[in-house]
């Protein structure tokens, strides 16, 4: 039996993808907000792609890209670079943004 070759991605591509996905998430959050300003229920005014991006990007960053980046760096050099840290921070920033909104909402009650 032959073993299948693993698909390898350059470690510099992963933080770049995380930064790009984070920017796309914030753009879709802005579109969601603009589309729902006059909506009473807050869901039906937004396009479906904005809802999908708002849900899928943070979880794909957390579940797929973060472990891939950490594994690629640990197998290669063993250390994360500054660009990797920036990619991780910006890739996980949607979670921090939502957490801040939840805390502010709870504090205003």
Which descriptors would you attach to this protein?
109 residues; mainly alpha; 4 helices
Account of the protein in words:
- The chain has 109 residues and is mainly alpha-helical.
- It contains four helices and no strands.
- It has helices at 13-35, 48-76, 82-91, 93-107.
- The longest helix has 29 residues, at 48-76.
- The mean pLDDT is 83.
SSE blueprint:
Elements: H1 13-35, H2 48-76, H3 82-91, H4 93-107
Helix pairs in contact: 1-2, 1-3
Distance between the termini: 63 Å
- Measured by DSSP, the beta-strand proportion falls in under 5%
Computed structural class: mainly alpha
- Average pLDDT confidence is 83
Number of helices: 4
Largest sheet: none
Helix content: over 70%
How would you summarize what this structure contains?
With 109 residues, this protein is an all-alpha fold. The protein is built from 4 helices and no strands.
């Amino acid at each position: 039996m032959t073993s299948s070759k693993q698909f390898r991605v350059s470690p510099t591509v992963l933080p770049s993808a995380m930064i790009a996905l984070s920017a796309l998430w914030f753009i879709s959050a802005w579109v969601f907000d603009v589309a729902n300003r006059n909506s009473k229920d807050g869901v039906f005014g937004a396009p479906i792609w904005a809802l999908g991006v708002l849900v899928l990007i943070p979880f794909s960053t957390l579940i797929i890209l973060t472990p891939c980046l950490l594994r690629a760096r640990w197998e290669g050099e063993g250390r994360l670079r500054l660009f990797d840290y920036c990619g991780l921070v910006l890739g996980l920033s949607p979670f921090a943004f939502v957490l801040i909104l939840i805390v502010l909402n709870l504090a205003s009650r």
